[in-house]
Specification:
By secondary structure, this protein is an alpha/beta fold. 41% of the residues lie in helices and 15% in strands. It has an eight-stranded parallel beta barrel with strand order 1-2-3-4-5-6-7-8, surrounded by five helices. The protein binds phosphoenolpyruvate (PEP).
Length: 252
Amino acid sequence: MSRKFIVGGNWKCNPASMKEANTLLKEWKKSLPSVDKSKVDVVICPPALWMTTLSPAIEALGMQTCAQNVGKNDAGAFTGEWTAANLLDLNIKWTLIGHSERRTKYGETDADVAEKVAKCQEIGVNVILCIGETLEEREGGKTDEVNKRQLAAVIPKVKDWSKIVLAYEPVWAIGTGKVATPEQAEETQAAIRAYIKGAVSSDVADKLQIQYGGSVSPDNCAELITKPNIDGFLVGGASLKPTFMEIVSKVG
Ligand code: PEP
């Protein structure tokens, strides 16, 4: 089964100004001819406040804008939140859910993640669902158990799997410079796909795109992408550089 590759750039709370963000997008434009868009989709996750302002420049590069988070609520008294419907209203068709920084720094539980996914399914927003284990969990041999637990919370909420992409992001590899080896990433992602096959269906498992995320760079992406269960990347730090486009073109 051949799946289209998908690369995400998660800017987190960066860069320091919108001027720098615009400069970065202009730099990327120079590399566009090296990208085969029939082979790779690209979604960019800027800070929420900038999403709508930057969206036209992102789309002009043939990329899509993706939120880094979304509320689990409908409109109402939820100070500081935004809804899945707010995103679609602004033509933002994607959001990350369950990034490890949301889980660890903002206390998001599996149940919160599941409610957010349910809301996006109801409204029709595409989700990049982030899962992954901590170093302690990996060293304790619990990697597959943790991924299954995080997925099991969400699976009952998903009616339309064509609107879900998974990002396997081992927490110990995020922002640390310690990338998983291609073998580690492949072994874990194969286990994730096998779990989806059993818990959902073979058809969904075959079609589901699974990104790897965690210290991906232009230097390490070429080998990772040769693995059959790696369908692209979710990139943090390296997506803030002009050389992000080297990752995109090596994938596509
Ligand atoms: C991320 O934030 O999702 C991520 C993978 O970060 P980094 O590439 O910096 O490890």
